[in-house]
């Protein structure tokens, strides 16, 4: 049974992303645990891939660094094993179809189940084709998390009605990366989702400031931050722990502010 629901038990979740193996496996374990202590409710772990088509330059470069340092899918599983020795925080993989296919669907999800990986996001897997992975994922208690983009208008209800874990709402067109302004009508997307499911939904792509986190969490059930975190790791390398903790704490405060404002209504 997936642990993802626990990330949203207080009503709003702060979700942090980092790339496994950047700068190395030991630091990835350390940074996941540091972000949990600072307030992250769920951590997305990127499995490095040579062609991450949905990612902007910051995460692309993190993939290159991790692969260059020798990170493999088995190495990522070992990172999860080490995290699980100390933490039950909900963990979700973000990867592309190719690494999962080459590892073998059944073998991959069996390993996820053994290590309590709670979910997986695969940006290049079309919703209509998720059936080839769903049986293996479901058999091992792994939620196949769907993404809803601004271009999904005609399909929002269909995607949402089959949601598992949480729904990842893409805030803007294009690839991941920091944005100064998010103009998509996210409220309308969330309204459509709410009419067919009570599965939580969180907004990602472009969120980097506590105020943006507050705004996105006010519209949905949480905020997802990746590029801004990966950028701190790129700049600080093996000494990023303190800066990550400070940043995550501020972003979580933004999410909590949205929760408190909602309670007061």
Automatic annotation (TrEMBL):
Keywords, alphabetical: Amino-acid biosynthesis, Aromatic amino acid biosynthesis, Lyase, Tryptophan biosynthesis
Q: Which InterPro entries match?
A: Aldolase_TIM, RibuloseP-bd_barrel, Trp_synthase_suA
Q: Name one GO cellular component term.
A: cytosol
Q: Give the domain of life.
A: Bacteria
Regarding protein family, the annotation reads:
Belongs to the TrpA family.
Pathway the protein contributes to:
Amino-acid biosynthesis; L-tryptophan biosynthesis; L-tryptophan from chorismate: step 5/5
Task: From the UniProt record, list the reaction(s) this protein catalyses.
Answer: (1S,2R)-1-C-(indol-3-yl)glycerol 3-phosphate + L-serine = D-glyceraldehyde 3-phosphate + L-tryptophan + H2O
Q: Tell me the gene name.
A: trpA
Q: Which species?
A: Eisenbergiella massiliensis
What is known about what this protein does? The alpha subunit is responsible for the aldol cleavage of indoleglycerol phosphate to indole and glyceraldehyde 3-phosphate.
Tell me which residues this entry annotates as catalytic: 44 (proton acceptor), 55 (proton acceptor)
Its assembly, as annotated, is:
Tetramer of two alpha and two beta chains.
Q: Which GO terms describe its molecular function?
A: tryptophan synthase activity
Question: Which top EC class applies here?
Answer: lyase
Kindly provide the name given to this protein in its UniProt entry: Tryptophan synthase alpha chain
